[in-house]
Amino acid sequence: MDQLPNSRTEPDGSAVVRVLSYNVRSMRDDRAALARVIRACAPDVVCVQEAPRFFRWRKHAAWLARESGLVTVTGGATAAGPMILANLRAHVERTEDLLLPRTPGLHQRGFATAVLRFGAARLAVISCHLSVNPVERYTQAGLLLDRVATVGEPHTVVGGDFNDHPDGRAFTRIASELQDGWAVRPWGGEHTSRPGDPYQRLDAIFATKGVEFLGCGVPEKLSGVWAEDLVAATDHLPVLAAVRIPAG
User: Fold this and answer.
1) CATH classification of 8-245 is 3.30.390.50, yes or no?
2) Amino acid 2: pLDDT
3) Which letter does DSSP use for residue 178 in this model?
4) How far apart are the C-alpha atoms of 122 and 119, rounded to whole Å?
């Protein structure tokens, strides 16, 4: 497996940023294994799904950030589960959590959004977790594209659990307007569910056209990421991408 590029600032002011997307199942599994996986991926930004969002959720989110060597940027209960973490390389310019229209009988969903600066490069980040209901999920895919447009940044990445396959209606709706990192520059493993016997890709990292993918996939053979930790940490496998963001 080719090595995924490390974070760095290029001479022209562009930035190589490592983005991780990870459904942590409310940290109900092996929390130490979860933190080890995240640290080994060495991300600049983490799009979390199913972050702690109930009793003392801020305390649990702070634990995850601290043990992963990161800080909490936004999200959690305020976004109904999606959350964004980042390292100290990222300068936070603004954040916003958005709750989506709720279908009676289904879970509340939302988007966590942040605009981050890495030196001269600015990047909008959206963490999302779409519905298990196909009708609601398709609608939420459209709302996600609307969110990408209204965030007002030319360079945006979206990390999420899309609860859909690449040939599904919601997934293809998103991929019709955004780059699918695995499809553009596959690296590592493809399938994200379930650990131990992965057979389907439900999780992905997308980006707007100006973002260059240098590699994207499940870090199954990355140094420091152990198979037993991936199985113990949660019921999804993470997706890690390295992207290049132009300056300006």
Assistant:
1) no
2) 76
3) S
4) 8
- Tokens representing residue 22 in the block: 């990870």
The predicted structure's pLDDT at residue 29: 98
Which residues does 234 contact at the CB level (< 8 Å), separation at least 6? 22, 23, 24, 25, 29, 34, 195
- Using DSSP, state whether 183 is helix, strand or coil: helix
CA quadruple 78, 81, 87, 88: dihedral, nearest 10: 0
Looking at residue 225, its amino acid is: V
Contact 109, 139 (CB under 8 A): no
How are beta strands 212-217 and 203-207 bridged, if at all? Answer: unpaired
pLDDT of residue 109: 98
Region of residue 236 (phi > 0: left; psi between -120 and 50: alpha; otherwise: beta)? beta
pLDDT of residue 218: 98
State residue 1's pLDDT score: 55
Give the residue ranges of the chain where pLDDT is below 70.
1
Residue 77 has a pLDDT of 97
- Please report the DSSP string for 44-76 in residue order: SEEEEES---STTHHHHHHHHHHHTT-EEEEES
Query: What backbone phi and psi angles, to 5 degrees, belong to 29?
Result: -105, -140
Model pTM score: 0.98
Q: Which H or E run contains 171?
A: helix 169-175
Tokens of 248: 């300006």
Which residues, 6 or more positions from 168, have their beta carbon under 8 angstroms from its beta carbon?
Answer: 134, 162
Q: Hey, where are the domains in the chain?
A: 8-245
Residues 11, 241, 19, CA angle at the centre, nearest 5°?
80
List the one residue out of 183, 211, 8 whose CA is nearest residue 123. Answer: 211
pLDDT at residue 103, as a whole number: 92
